[in-house]
Amino acid sequence: MDKDEKEPVDSQKEKAAPQITYTDCSIIPSSGIFEFVKCHQGDRCVVLKGLKEPYRNKVQEQNLLKKEFRTVQHLDHPHIEKYIDFIDHPDYGKCIVLEYIEGRSLKEYIAERHTLEEKKNVVEQIADALDYIHGKNIVHRNLKPSNILLTKDNQVKLIDFRVSYADNLSDPSSSLKYAAPEQRDGTISVDGRTDIYSLGMIMKELGLYAEYPDVIEKCCRFGRSERYLDIESFLRDLNHEGNEGHSKMKSILLIGVIIIAAIIVAVVLFSKNGSPSSEASTSTEAVKDTTDTVAASKMATPTSQPSETKDTTSMTAPASGSLDPAINAKMTTGLDKIFRVYFAQKQNGNFDPIQMHKDIRSYYKSFLRTQDIPGEERQAFDASFSNYVKQKTALLNQ
């Protein structure tokens, strides 16, 4: 009987697979509790992620390593480092076997010279990887430039899906810079919006704030309920603001110039009506050349008419070229509402031109975000918007 019982055991020993060997091992310098070893597993190069000597036999740290592997082992995405196996190495203890990625970190990439389009492409790759893991209810928790690698052809690879910030103890200031407020104070559990906060901080590091100010600000808001709900909504705004960024900035500046020019016209006309002089006439002509149709419209309106008190908030917009009439009508209706407020303010003697400029700018940005304006109509829309603001401002300042 004893013989019969021993036979299966002996049989299992004979059938046991040969132990996988790891050769050419070399330690990769790192801070924190984790040790990284580059080595060969047969013909392929891999990285062993284990614990440094002082932590190697501590059960709590070993469990963190195991939990990290269990969380990520089934992920399969082109922008995420592959978690291959979990082993007990004779020299390095319990280790995660990782895909070896030849390249450099995003921190090094930032120090290089890259175009706006290249940087945006990197952000989109990171976002694609985050969208994938969030769909599987996984939060990265430690998104920062040193944990994002780029291959030679600038393909993103997210690494280091640890479940604890233990490794950040060596340099908390640089690590926690990218952590969301709820992550730093530990008041509530984290979710995908925590990674979105970190993504916004990474965009700042890439020098993209001037091009995507609204997107970055929404990513990095203190309250996570005020951030993007998911990556899909983030990408929608990223692509919209990115495509329209340069044109939008130019249009906003144009509106500011128009308002300032209109105020100058008003001052010049007031001087002219109060005490006529050749100097005032010359100034008026100079401003007329700069403001184009604004001054022409102004000069054509008799100054004796109390135009401020009349219903001047509804008028026909200038020809809009190829702009969809429905879009044009909607745009002018919104501007009418804004100017109606400031016509009333002027009548009551509390006109605030600075706030009016802010309201027009805000409306312009909001309109572009909520309306689907084809690219070929953008120039016509900007021209129509600008001309309508000119006309309304000219009437307001009479």
What does this structure look like?
By secondary structure, the chain is α+β, with helices and mostly antiparallel strands. The protein is 53% helix and 12% strand. It has 14 helices and 8 strands. It has a 5-stranded antiparallel β-sheet with strand order 1-2-3-5-4, with helices on one face. It has a 3-stranded antiparallel β-sheet with strand order 6-7-8. Helix 11 runs parallel beside helix 14. It is elongated, with a radius of gyration of 32 Å. 29% of the residues are buried.
Strand order of the largest sheet: 1-2-3-5-4
- Helix residue percentage: 40-55%
Main sheet: strands, sense, barrel: 5 strands, antiparallel
| N- to C-terminal distance | 112 Å
What is the general shape? elongated
Q: What structural class results from the helix and strand content?
A: alpha+beta
Q: What are the low-pLDDT stretches, counting only 5+ consecutive residues below 50? A: 3-17, 165-171, 275-314
Order of helices and strands: HEEEHEEEHHEEHHHHHHHHHH
Count of separate DSSP helical elements: 14
Summarize the structure.
With 398 residues, the chain is of the alpha+beta class.
Characteristic terms for this protein:
elongated, single chain, alpha+beta, five-stranded antiparallel β-sheet, 14 helices, 398 residues, disordered N terminus
